[in-house]
Amino acid sequence: VATKAPSSLERELAAILGPDPLAPVTAAYLGDETEGRGLRGRADALVLPSSADVVARTLAWCYEHDVPVVPRGGGTGFAGGAVPLDGGVVIALERLTRVRRFDPLLWRINVEAGMRTADVRRLAREHGLFFPPDPGAAEQSQIGGNIATNAGGPHAFKYGVTGAWVTGLEAVVPPGELVRVGGSVRKDVAGYDLRGLLVGSEGTLGIVTAAWLRLLPAPEAFLPVAAFHRDVQAGCEAIERVLGSGLTPAALEFLDGATLEAAGPAFPGEVPAGAGFLVIAEADGSREEAARLRAELSEVLGEGALGLVSPTGAGEVEALWRWRDGVSIAVTARRGRKVSEDIVVPLDRLAEAIEETLAIGRRHGLPSCSWGHAGDGNLHATFEVSADDDEELARAELAALELFALAIRLDGSISGEHGVGWVKRGQLARQWEPAALALHAEIKRAFDPKGLLNPGKKVAAL
Ligand SMILES: Cc1cc2nc3c(=O)[nH]c(=O)nc-3n(C[C@H](O)[C@H](O)[C@H](O)COP(=O)(O)OP(=O)(O)OC[C@H]3O[C@@H](n4cnc5c(N)ncnc54)[C@H](O)[C@@H]3O)c2cc1C
User: Fold this and answer.
1) End-to-end CA distance of the chain
2) How confident is the model at residue 6, as a pLDDT?
3) Is pLDDT larger for residue 2 or for residue 451?
4) Is residue 82 lining ligand 1, measured as CB closer than 6 Å?
5) Which end of the chain, C or N, has fewer beta carbons within 10 A?
6) Mind giving me the DSSP string for 197-224?
7) What is the rounded distance in angstroms from the CA atom of residue 250 to the CA atom of residue 253?
8) What predicted TM-score, i.e. pTM, was given to this entire model?
9) Which pLDDT does position 435 carry in this prediction?
10) Among 32, 90, 115, 149, which residue has the most ligand 1 atoms within 8 Å of its CB, making it the best to mutate?
């Protein structure tokens, strides 16, 4: 196999970093989960740092030479945030996987940014602890990517999104400085909340190299119940009844009828005939607490339901969540591609958002569906696109613009958890007032005056 000769940029970087962090630019580093939407970048160099110091030296060199930098985690993002659309240097954090410190008895851990989400969760679990954020691609995504997108997931309903579990960050900011904000302390109100600014900044303000995370003693039991309803109205009424009854499930998820058609055949249990909506609620706590809460949730969700499935034992519970994690893939499999967004609306507008998604799809001649984190009003509103029809893809992108308008009309937001990245660039202007938009631009300028960090993403205009 012929290997490409290193470019002059790669040679210059190798001269200051040594050859080890430089790797050939392969296709795996040029796309993310938006690949089906035609997003693929090109990069002039790929750096795989093994230390925060190498991240800092890479950014310093790029800043001095006006070269754009794109930070990359596990590449599971749905917003094109890690895609290097205008060339430059991709800094992929996958070698930064050390646990710098773990104090299980103090419920805290300090990990490097490239550690995979599932590994953080497993390590915590092995010590009787719980790291609640559980975005669906946890085996591939990295904790740094989760922090950069402020990722959610099913259990964000009770426990909050990733940022709620980050007490401190180490990050490299332009022009190549290593900074620490926050730390292992659980409270810190000295200064502005720079930690909060970096969380969810999608690689546009700094490159996260390590994080202090808060943990909890692990609940003893997780007991979900899946309730099948006839339609959107009945399902959403059941969801609202759960909140109205004062019960606190750890997760409160939904799938609409079209999503059930795609994913239902693999459901680990019986799907009743006529089911057009699924609600999954999970109870957690001590064995007794979880059992009692699940019984109460079953009663509330069971009113008018076509059927309930209540997994018992760790294997069955895991099978249900594995199935839930596979929903996105099952929907993609139906037509080959999809345009899937993550709008969020107030809970009492969820039914309207689900129905409107179907109406937008119909107007654009596209099969559509939605599923997501019902308790948070966060829906993955999706237009299914045939694998070989680019005209359909263009229609789906137009349909997505209507979704953003819908989210705003319903007092919601264009993104509940995936971020803005490249695919929603320019859309912030629909949501934020001019003064708030101007503050965004000022913050970007304060961190990154040359605009070289992940250009074209998050706060960029169309
Ligand atoms: C099947 C599936 C299910 C999913 N389910 C969920 C879900 O339930 N909830 C949810 O929120 N998301 C979900 N996602 C989306 C995705 O997993 C999350 O957005 C995740 O947080 C991205 O992490 P990553 O490491 O893959 O980041 P990447 O995709 O590599 O990057 C995402 C963004 O973060 C930036 N970035 C990455 N690492 C760093 C760093 N160290 N420092 C600074 N910036 C960085 C990138 O530049 C980019 O802008 C799902 C994705 C898939 C494929």
Assistant:
1) 40
2) 78
3) 451
4) yes
5) N
6) HHTT-TTSS-EEEEEEEE-EEPPSEEEE
7) 10
8) 0.97
9) 97
10) 149
